[in-house]
Design a protein that fits this description.
Strand 13 and strand 14 form a beta hairpin. The protein is of the alpha+beta class and 512 residues long. The chain is globular. The protein is built from 17 helices and 15 strands. The protein has 3 domains: 34 residues; 324 residues, DD-peptidase/beta-lactamase superfamily (Beta-lactamase); 129 residues, no CATH class. The longest helix has 55 residues.
Length: 512
């Protein structure tokens, strides 16, 4: 009995020792992973920003070398309250371009593609409106956004994704280039749509299958997709659009043709693997997805953007930092890497009017990693919405009042000064301002893109502009009619006066 008790005590001591050793090992591992990151500050910052900017959910991944330093989800991934986790997939937006560029460089490594060969060598039927320019566009031009295809046409393509990749590229045969081939940088989604089709034509494999097999699989990106339908367990985060300052859950359009430039899907955990491969010259856990030389060439600065920033191949380069952000109608992402660290931020909402604040979140995460003071933003991010909402309300009141005045009988005589004021008001508010807004909607950016990325406000401003112009035309018609009636009345009055004068003269003559 005594020996049994001693044995029990010995076992308890052994269990206690194992517990202490395990705890110490966990603490040591945590310290190694965090590498003196102040994760409490990161968590506090992320939670404050989600609350301040009314962001539903976000996830982050921070890596150093070949190790994950910190990874976490914040907030919710969908309206039912499911939490955002590092495994929650989010639509990547234009970060997808870096995957397409990587796929192209893999084919360069295999000798299947040469960067300075024309696109027509891989897609013989490829055409834009200019036959000669069609022959000049190379793979490198597409990668560096120097093909001459405009940003405007690239934006319009976002709302034309409900077709196959081949159909989208075929539709470019009537496309006019805004610049000469190779002349200047113009960020255009269509460049990467064409590259997606090049991958298909060269490999005889659908783009989505190529990405899954040659990038997702070797990098163990198990929660990454090329099509939402692949997500059998419905884990992809619900995206939220910002409408009049309110975040509303929405479904995305069908973007089949837009996947290579903006609609791949991944999670923070998977993006950590992707960043580790980049930081380690194309290698992840012994698996190589790209040669060191091709990885270096892919990040080589090429097309000047502004402020010491250049576009490379699927990346923006500023000194030793490469980055790319991504927008869809209801998600935001950004990836940033230097020679040592990599940071990914995934957000399941998008706010075009505050997109710079989303970018700043990644900048501040980088500041935390580098032990620098974060940039502070205390102002209300929704003040801009309050201003726009007030403008829309005032415009609607103005339209209603104008309609009321238009049909109200004007009995009193209008003074000359008031006529001048009315004419100036008509020109400014019914033509000049609405035409400027419509110019932005049709020339600077397509209406379909504006209403997709700035819903509510975009729709309202377009409808208000059209309404004001219609009212202006009606007012001008009314003024012309009043003028004609006044001229007619004036002529009739003159005739009456002339008739009276004749009668008066006749009467005088008769009396005399």
């Amino acid at each position: 009995m005594k020996s049994l008790t001693v044995t029990k005590i010995g076992k308890l001591i052994l269990i206690l020792l194992m517990f202490i050793i395990t705890s110490l090992n966990e603490k040591a591992l945590a310290a190694e992973n965090h590498n003196d990151l102040d994760v409490s500050k990161i968590d506090e910052y992320m939670n404050n920003e989600l609350k301040r900017q009314k962001i539903p959910g976000a996830s982050i991944a921070i890596v150093k070398g070949d190790k994950v330093q910190y990874i976490k989800g914040y907030g919710i991934s969908e309206p039912n309250g499911n939490k955002m986790t590092p495994q929650t997939p989010v639509v990547l937006g234009s970060v997808s371009k870096s995957f397409t560029a990587l796929a192209i460089m893999q084919l360069v490594d295999q000798g299947m593609i040469q960067l300075d060969n024309p696109v027509q060598q891989y897609i013989p039927w490829f055409r834009v409106s200019d036959e000669e320019a069609s022959k000049e566009i190379t793979i490198r031009h597409l990668l560096n956004h120097t093909s001459g295809i405009s940003e405007y046409d690239g934006q319009r393509a976002i709302s034309e994704g409900d077709q196959s990749l081949k159909k989208l590229v075929e539709s470019l045969k009537g496309l006019r280039l805004e610049k000469k081939v190779g002349e200047s940088y113009q960020y255009s989604n269509l460049n990467y749509a064409i590259l997606g089709l090049v991958i298909e034509e060269v490999t005889k494999t659908p783009y989505d299958e190529y990405i899954r097999r040659n990038i997702y699989k070797p990098l163990q990106m198990v929660n990454s997709y090329t099509d939402p339908k692949e997500d059998k367990n419905n884990t992809i985060a619900t995206g939220y659009r910002t409408m009049f300052g309110f975040k509303l859950p929405t479904e995305q359009l069908n973007h089949e043709a837009n996947v290579p430039h903006g609609y791949l899907i991944s999670s923070a955990e998977d993006m950590a693997n992707y960043m580790i491969a980049i930081l380690n010259n194309g290698q992840f856990k012994g698996e190589r997805v790209l040669t060191k030389q091709s990885m270096a060439e892919m990040h080589q600065p090429s097309s000047f953007i502004d402020n010491h920033t250049y576009y490379a191949m699927g990346w923006e380069v500023n000194n030793d930092v490469i980055s790319h952000n991504g927008w869809t109608e209801n998600t935001y992402t950004r990836v940033l890497l230097d020679n040592e660290y990599g940071i990914t931020l995934l957000i399941n909402s998008f706010d075009y009017l505050n997109s710079n604040r989303y970018d700043q979140m990644v900048t501040n995460l980088y500041n935390f990693v580098k032990h620098n003071e974060p940039l502070k933003s205390e102002e209300n991010p929704f003040l801009i919405y309050i201003i726009f909402d007030l403008i829309i309300v005032v415009a609607m009141v103005f339209i209603t009042f104008s309609i009321y005045k238009m049909f109200k009988q004007q009995k009193r005589k209008v003074k000359h000064f008031r006529v001048i004021v009315n004419v100036v008001s008509l020109l400014v508010f019914n033509f000049l301002l609405p035409l400027l807004i419509l110019y932005d909607f049709t020339i600077v950016a397509p209406l379909s893109t504006v209403t997709l990325f700035v819903p509510g406000i975009g729709h309202a401003l377009f409808i208000i502009s059209i309404s004001l112009i219609i009212l202006g035309v009606i007012k001008i018609g009314k003024l012309i009619r009043i003028k004609l009636n006044a001229d007619k009345s004036s002529k009739e009055n003159r005739r009456v006066i002339e008739f009276n004068e004749i009668n008066h003269k006749s009467y005088d003559k008769f009396i005399n």
